[in-house]
Design brief:
114 residues; mainly beta; 3-stranded antiparallel sheet; 9 strands; 28% strand
Length: 114
């Protein structure tokens, strides 16, 4: 093999290996596409259907979510305006303010771009 594999973008481990079309890190188990650039693949946040999200977008919640302390939660179809993309806790990557609930973080996998 003449080409060396890139280090893991999450933990910088240099012992990555190929598994099919993906690159895999043996230390943190992170998987990413072999053709994706280091900067491009990690900074892009996509919604549940694959649309690229940006700060200030309006999104629609696609499934009913339970919210601690709220009797109703967030119903499917709720529009959330003016989102902000952040590195949140776990995989919560959207910071927003939901009408009737207040400020919170959402996962990009439960919203679609409106």
């Amino acid at each position: 093999m003449d080409e060396t594999l890139p280090p893991c973008p999450k933990c910088s481990c240099e012992y990555t290996y190929e598994m099919g079309s993906l690159l895999v890190c043996p230390e943190c188990a992170h998987e990413w596409a072999a053709g994706a650039g280091d900067d491009e693949g990690t900074d892009v946040i996509r919604d549940a259907v694959g649309n690229v999200l940006a700060d200030g977008d309006t999104v629609t919640v696609i499934k009913t979510l339970k919210v601690k302390g709220s009797p109703t939660g967030i119903k499917s179809g709720t529009k959330v305006r003016n989102i902000r993309l952040v590195k949140g806790v776990g995989d919560h990557d959207i910071d927003c303010k939901v009408d009737g609930i207040g400020p919170m973080q959402l996962k990009s996998s439960v919203v679609k771009k409106a």
